[in-house]
Specification:
With 194 residues, this protein is an all-alpha fold. 54% of the residues lie in helices and 0% in strands.
Length: 194
Amino acid sequence: MKKIIIITGILCLAGSISIESGQRTSTQDMRQSILNERLMSAILSNKKVDIQPLIKAGADPNVYNQDGNTVLMLAILHGNFELVRILIAARGIALNRQNNKGDTALMLAILRDNLDIVSTLIRVKTRLNTQNNDGNTALMLAVLRGNLVLIRLLIGTRGLALNIQNNDGNTALMLASLQGRVDVVKVLMAAGAR
């Protein structure tokens, strides 16, 4: 914090920062940027102890990288369940934000076959039927992964739409059939997929 104050003082003396009442100052923007960078760094280095203090200090829990992946998504991609739990509890967390490919946190957890994180995201009421840039839903991604445990979990969740079509016109059932996954086809048909 002392470094920020010293840097701010130097910049003010140099005339680089103009402070006007009622407007967000460059100092505030700089502080926010530093907090966000530290949060991103803590996530990437799996430093659980740094997360909560940074968020309490004002770091944005929805900050994202050049790929559109939020810190929650990065924690999921690193498979760090503890960081995911901390971030989900953060005030104002955007659970359903999509990255540049249109994937949500739930989709990324499915692509990582992470049952604990998928279960947690479902429990906190993340959207189930969002489609990514290819038109695929979380269920379709679980089908493409061939993960029966995740497929059954999703099917058992209230509000899941079984018959959404992706950009190629395929439903989850069609994708399972195209992959020759008879086991997945049976589970989907038993749940009412067409």
